[in-house]
């Protein structure tokens, strides 16, 4: 009986392994005061796979189950921690102490420091998943986009900006719409076959793309703006300089630490503006397919529709937009020339598409 209990205990502490040989590591991240820490980046260093903790500090990350690896836990304002996968215990609590260097702004009057995430989004809402492809899309803009944030109090300090990044999958797998199926069966298009599964680089709306040249590079700018008291539109700069961000990896969660910049919000409301840079460093070339009508002189078959390849250039970062209830969607503006225009994203009766962009602020409670 004792032996059985021991075996069960060992099994429960091991990472979960599925039939494909993949291993899922699960746990909860807390600080040294046992409070959950949301939006901590969890990375398998050898596989270069990332995930993030949710609002309750809970996380899971899947490994291919190959060689041993190291889990890296990191978040702005906390000390990073590395744990070898061979030493990780399933459903354990990972403690990240606060980084003392980030607490130089201690309030002389005393009080407890509180951190709040404004316009919070779940990692799963921003991370591409074929099962929820209708609820998440990539987003880029030729114009700078500003999103409104509202803090609980004035004079809060901005600790970090977090953005969800859309990383393309090469193929869409699954059912294909009737028009697409009919055209292919008519001999006008040869579908790609992988194993026994038919896949295509076009979807029902022909928006899924095959990346021809894939770059993990991304360079863009962030700006912090005050709110114009008369119009409610973005106003003057809250921080004197643009915040330049440069990425050379495929991180799906971009965290921009601002703790050392000592940026305080004079009022409760402020804007974060994203500026895309249309430069070669950010380029991706993608192949998609579109349905087009055949010219009459070329229409030798019964099908009047043909599928034509279309090459297009995308520019990183492709940010994620996701379906959110209307009362959870923040005001957004785009800057065209020197004029601000309201920016409603796609919507229906209950939901609108929200940009995966959040801000973490801190202040001291008395």
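^ Assign residues to that structure.
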């Amino acid at each position: 009986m004792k032996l059985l209990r021991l075996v069960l205990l060992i099994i429960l502490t091991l990472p979960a392994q599925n039939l494909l040989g993949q291993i899922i590591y699960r746990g909860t991240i807390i600080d040294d005061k046992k409070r959950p820490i949301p939006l901590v980046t969890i990375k398998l260093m050898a596989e270069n796979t990332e995930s993030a903790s949710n609002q309750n500090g809970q996380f899971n990350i899947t490994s291919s189950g190959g060689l041993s690896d190291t889990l890296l836990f990191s978040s702005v304002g906390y000390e990073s921690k590395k744990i070898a996968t061979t030493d990780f215990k399933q459903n354990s609590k990972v403690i990240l102490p606060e980084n003392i260097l980030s607490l130089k702004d201690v309030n002389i009057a005393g009080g407890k420091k509180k951190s709040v995430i404004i316009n919070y989004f779940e990692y799963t809402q921003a991370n591409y998943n074929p099962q929820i492809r209708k609820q998440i899309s990539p987003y880029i803009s030729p114009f700078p986009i500003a999103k409104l944030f509202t803090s609980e109090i004035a004079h809060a300090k901005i600790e970090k900006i977090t953005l969800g990044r859309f990383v393309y999958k090469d193929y869409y797998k699954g059912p294909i719409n009737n028009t697409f199926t009919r055209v292919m069966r008519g001999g006008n298009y040869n579908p790609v076959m992988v194993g026994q599964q038919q896949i295509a680089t076009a979807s029902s709306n022909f928006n899924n793309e095959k990346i021809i040249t894939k770059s993990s590079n991304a360079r863009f700018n962030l700006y912090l703006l005050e709110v114009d008291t008369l119009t409610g539109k973005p106003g003057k700069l809250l921080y004197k300089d643009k915040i330049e961000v440069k990425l050379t990896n495929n991180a799906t969660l971009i965290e921009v630490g601002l703790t050392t910049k000592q940026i305080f919000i004079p009022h409760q409301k402020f804007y974060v503006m994203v500026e895309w840079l249309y430069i070669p460093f950010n380029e991706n070339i993608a192949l998609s397919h579109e349905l087009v009508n055949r010219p009459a002189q070329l229409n030798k078959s019964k099908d009047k529709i043909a599928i034509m390849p279309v090459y297009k250039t995308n520019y990183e970062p492709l940010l994620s937009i996701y379906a959110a209830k209307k009362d959870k969607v923040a005001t957004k503006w785009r800057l065209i020339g020197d004029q601000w225009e309201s920016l409603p994203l796609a919507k229906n009766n209950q939901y609108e598409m929200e940009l995966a962009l959040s801000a973490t602020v801190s202040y001291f409670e008395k």
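The mean pLDDT is 75.
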